[in-house]
Amino acid sequence: MSDSDDLDLEGEGAPDAGGTAKKGGGLSNLLPTLLKFAAIGIGALIFIITVCVITYNIMNKGGKSQTVLQDPTGPYTGKRPEYNYYDMIGSITTKTKDFPAASTVTVEMIIGYDLNDLNASAELVSRRYELRDFVRRYFTGKYASDLVPEREEELKKEIREMLNTRFLDTARARLILFNRLDVSEAF
Known about the structure:
single chain; alpha+beta
């Protein structure tokens, strides 16, 4: 044996009694492998979240809301629907509900209905005289104070609802217009 063998200067350990050299601890070799896989998993998770956030922002145009609510009292900006109009009711003159001196009301009403609704056109034509009677009775049941220009939209809405719920079968009135709505006070 040489002097270097006795001192073990190269750091090699002496062989075990069984004749095999130990190749490092089991847990100390397992820990770096586990840390490596945990780092890969965390990196993949961060990558997936980053891709999802970027894709979501692109789809939503930078996070801006897709739904835009407009002020219902503001101007109408979309395309207005087109209607056919039924104006064969004619001019109707009647008295209001005021007592003792009833005012005189003269009305020419136009009903707007869906553009391609042929059934509505036929129903309105066939009910022409009933429509005249409906308009006469409606305005006979109103006071002159109800027929002021400030309440005209309310009148139109009420007439449209009454026509659609109580009067018309298949046709639907979509728009009510007054070609003439004159109220003359009695003297």
